[in-house]
DNA sequence: TGTATATTTCAATAATTCTTGTATAGTTGA
DNA sequence: TCAACTATACAAGAATTATTGAAATATACA
């Protein structure tokens, strides 16, 4: 996955309205929803919903299909799975045993820290 | 998970710089990185990195621990797992068989659509 | 045809976010 | 204590994004 794709998806989900839309569509699965249904379900002006749907579509987060005079939107779940893979790519590189540890615990544990390298600030 | 938590995390990852920081920290795992290391690794002004790290910390996406005069940052992977669960909550509600279908295919398939309900636009 | 419906587009304003430079606070070690 | 270093806080301008109302496009149906 390209970095721009990832940031676009995150940008899409960074708004409460778009997050609501996405979660609504996830619940609907393959059935999806038409634009007006989404607007009335969330009690928002249709043109505002359309504005957000356009951005989400451009980011690939949702797909749209014309159905007569309706536009049916569906969540693109596989993209989300790709995104997760992108985020955890090379997770704990070189120390795979840490991955299991991190994933199992409730939060980054107050683990014993390795001492700082003698040469400070080398990348 | 609360909606605000989710939007804050997504907002954090919607910037290319913050996404780079997060992925860098994910790779480092429990070791993490100190602020100056992050800045020089990404070739960015330290105060700009500090600005972004503050937001990420506030969103809970990274944790910070003081280490003498250094501030050591680590990615909060468990939060990401919670976030994914939040997103796919009630996925395909009422039609669990669709979930497997969606997850298996490469993208939302051009599935056969159910006909529109006779009463248009009811939520 | 003509009218109603669904959705999008456009323009304008309000609000937020990003980046840079400068200044401040805290830590280290001589 | 003093000087060097790490990191954050603050302020200002540029840039981006959100919301609303009005207008436009396209489909459906009588």
Automatic annotation (TrEMBL), chains A, B:
PROSITE patterns: HTH_ARSR_2. It comes from the Bacteria. Residues 1-95 form the HTH arsR-type domain. SMART domains: HTH_ARSR. InterPro entries: ArsR-like_HTH, HTH_ArsR_DNA-bd_dom, Metal_resp_trans_reg, WH-like_DNA-bd_sf, WH_DNA-bd_sf. It holds the Pfam family HTH_20. CDD domains: HTH_ARSR (cd00090). Keywords: DNA-binding, Transcription, Transcription regulation. PANTHER family: ARSENICAL RESISTANCE OPERON REPRESSOR ARSR-RELATED. This is Helix-turn-helix domain-containing protein. It comes from Vogesella margarita. The lineage of its organism: Bacteria, Pseudomonadati, Pseudomonadota, Betaproteobacteria, Neisseriales.
């Amino acid at each position: 996955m390209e970095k721009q794709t990832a940031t676009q998806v995150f940008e899409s989900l960074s708004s409460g309205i778009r997050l609501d839309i996405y979660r609504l569509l996830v619940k609907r699965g393959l059935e999806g929803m038409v634009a007006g249904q989404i607007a009335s379900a969330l009690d928002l002006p249709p043109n505002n919903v359309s504005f957000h749907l356009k951005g989400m579509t451009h980011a690939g987060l949702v797909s749209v299909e014309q159905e007569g005079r309706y536009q049916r939107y569906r969540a693109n779940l596989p993209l989300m799975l790709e995104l997760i893979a992108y985020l955890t790519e090379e997770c704990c590189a070189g120390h795979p045993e840490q991955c299991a540890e991190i994933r199992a615990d409730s939060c980054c544990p107050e683990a014993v820290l390795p001492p700082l390298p003698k040469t400070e600030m080398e990348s």
